[in-house]
């Protein structure tokens, strides 16, 4: 049966080597509190939908500003242009 000294030597040899990174231990560090926050952005597909929505609204406003018939054209403020 191995002695306690031999067991301690075996335990020391089984300790993995350090990965080479220089890690500093910060007292009172909590990962949930101290980690860097990520920037939350909406997916790109929503920004495209906003562009389409804006374009459709702009076209609708342009259609509403045009007279629907000749009478509306003559009665509008811009009747000289018609």
Automatic annotation (TrEMBL):
It comes from the Eukaryota. Residues 1-24 are annotated as: Disordered. This is Copia LTR rider. The lineage of its organism: Eukaryota, Viridiplantae, Streptophyta, Embryophyta, Tracheophyta.
